[in-house]
Design goal:
Chain lengths: 323, 245
């Protein structure tokens, strides 16, 4: 028995969410009194793979073959499931990223495993029951899900557990994956990354704005504020529906759910659908000229005032703070 | 082109979520149900791809008879026929097995789902059905075009997108942007009443998960209001009290 964690690489590097998944998987391995093995697929340098030891992985399986240099959902899932079988890992941990969301369910079917996706805490093991708390109802609730199968898959929400160092000397081994041609049905033609922007699901700080901004031409100050904070930008549904901002920035019940350390909502009234996607943020700041805006009821800090006056002053105050 | 769209019956987005029976069951009292909004996007795309005699759209739902109004809504939007697998949707694993079992000998060219249901937020069904059927699955897509043999798909990734091609059968889960949600017109609503809605029985599969209980988020303390002219005070609080900047 052991625990396996899939470490997703992007352009040969691991992101913070990967170190978080390794930290989380290590904590589960400790709960189970067993070892943690990581599996990496793609072109990653040995020194980068060794880094995983810092967070508790004692063995790293490396799959570096031509056909799997870029993401192929079906084939990656087969390789991870094969590694779990070879390592006798009955618990597989994956980061609940866009790719993780495509992989975990396939692995679950291959291993006849229960899957807890969007996990927000370590599993609780009680009288033989293995329970994982996960987000449900788009952030309006949590479901404590019992994984009743022998094999178990957990997809961890970004920013839910944090990175914990746990220095181990990681050995790196090549894992010989058996790749089926029928698993290679999808071909990546292009990858477009906005390198100057912080990705919203991973962001620790988020500055978000709504209809109160009156039009897309007024987003300059939002971007400036986000830039100063090192934050990602987000928006409410009416804003993305009106094409003022891209859909990828829409947070809320029908957009993406996020749980950053800080969420600053500017000119967003706080409809129940919007709150659903952001209510697990650790600290919420609301700036709105309407003192009756429902968002103030779930905020930690609030400023009642016109965004066009408050935000420039906030930018000045932040510049002064940084100076 | 034959397309299958998987739809979920979910509480309306304005629903206040509460639980009963010692927090083990969702409180359905007074709840209005809708077609899961993402599934509506998937359905709208399927109709777009088959309009003008270019194919047919079947919707499938796993659920009990109470879901029929939601299924009729999907027929009103423009699906040609519907199938309901008559069983409570235990979890994604169970639902996916039912859908795969139905679809395996029907020769659908494309299967679409929404990116996730807004109740259980699993984001699991598309990839699980793909695995049960051994066909490619692409999760959380933003764009889909097809010439009938090769589909070009854009998938969201952290901080960007991937452009993917796939030939042959596939399943994909749709996010915003794939299609504009279609609104049923009067003719659609009238014709939905007479379109076929076939009810089939579920197949059995091992249990892998169950919900032990639900919890609601802990309430936050009262908001600390800062006067609009004291923005530096907010920065100080975020720095030294909340310790987030």
């Amino acid at each position: 028995m052991s625990v396996l964690v899939y470490v997703e690489q992007a352009e040969g590097k691991f992101k913070k969410s990967v170190f978080e998944a390794v930290s989380y998987a290590k904590a589960i391995a400790d709960q189970q009194s067993t070892n943690l093995t990581a599996i990496s697929i793609g072109d990653v340098a040995e020194s980068e793979l060794k880094e995983l030891g810092k967070f508790g992985a004692s063995k790293v399986l490396n799959v570096s073959v031509e056909q799997l240099k870029t993401f192929v959902n079906q084939a990656y899932a087969s390789v991870i499931a094969a590694a779990a079988e070879k390592e006798s890992a009955n618990i597989v941990v994956i980061s609940n990223s866009f790719s993780g969301k495509g992989l975990a369910p396939r692995i679950a079917v291959k291993l006849k495993a229960g899957l807890a996706d969007g996990a927000v805490e370590l599993p609780k093991i009680d009288g033989g029951k293995f329970q994982v708390k996960k987000t449900a109802f788009s952030g309006k609730a949590f479901a404590v899900t019992e994984l009743t199968s022998e094999n178990k898959i957990i997809a961890l929400n970004p920013n839910a557990f944090g990175i914990k160092e746990n220095v181990t000397d990681a050995s790196v081994e090549t894992f010989a994956a058996d790749i089926k041609q029928s698993d290679l049905g999808t071909v990546i033609k292009d990858i477009v990354r906005a390198t100057d922007k912080i990705s919203l699901p991973d962001a620790e700080l988020v500055v978000s704005a709504g209809r109160g901004l009156k039009g897309p031409e007024n987003w300059g100050m939002i971007e400036e504020l986000a830039g100063l904070l090192g934050a990602a930008t987000a928006c409410s549904k009416p804003v993305s529906d009106a094409d003022w901002r891209p859909h990828s920035e829409h947070v809320g019940q029908t957009g993406i759910a996020i749980s950053p350390n800080l969420y600053i909502a500017i000119g967003i009234s706080g409809a129940i659908q919007h709150l659903a996607g952001v209510s697990s943020s650790k600290v919420i700041v609301v700036i709105n000229k309407d003192p009756e805006a429902p968002f103030f009821k779930v905020a930690d800090y609030g400023i009642v005032g016109d965004a066009f006056e408050v935000v420039p002053k906030l930018i000045d105050a932040l510049k002064a703070h940084k100076a | 082109m034959k397309i299958l769209v998987c739809i979920s019956n979910v509480p309306d987005t304005t629903t206040k979520i509460t639980f009963t029976n010692d927090n083990t069951e969702f409180n359905t009292a007074g709840v209005q149900y809708i077609v899961n909004p993402y599934d509506e996007i998937a359905l709208s795309k399927a109709i777009e791809l088959t309009e003008g005699g270019k194919g047919s759209v079947t919707v499938i739902n796993v659920g009990e008879a109470g879901n029929d109004p939601t299924i009729r809504k999907a027929l009103a939007i423009g699906a040609d026929d519907a199938v309901r697998v008559n069983a409570a949707p235990r979890d994604a694993y169970f639902v996916s097995k039912q859908i795969a079992e139905y679809a395996k000998d029907k020769d659908f060219d494309i299967i679409l789902t929404g990116r996730e249901s807004i109740d259980y937020n699993g984001n699991q069904v598309a990839a699980m059905v793909g695995e049960f059927l051994d066909i490619p699955s692409i999760s959380i897509i933003k764009k889909l075009e097809t010439d009938g043999t090769t589909a070009t798909i854009e998938r969201e990734i952290e901080g960007g997108k991937e452009v993917i091609t796939v030939s042959g059968k596939f399943i994909a889960s749709c996010a915003e942007g794939v299609a504009e949600p279609k609104i049923p017109n009067m003719r659609g609503i009238m014709s939905a009443r007479t379109k076929p809605l076939n009810v089939i029985e579920a197949v059995s599969i091992e249990e892998v998960t169950k919900v032990a209980k639900y919890e609601t988020p802990a309430p936050r303390g009262a908001v600390k209001l800062i006067p609009a002219e004291q923005t530096e005070e907010l920065i100080n609080l975020l720095h030294s009290e909340a310790k987030v900047i």
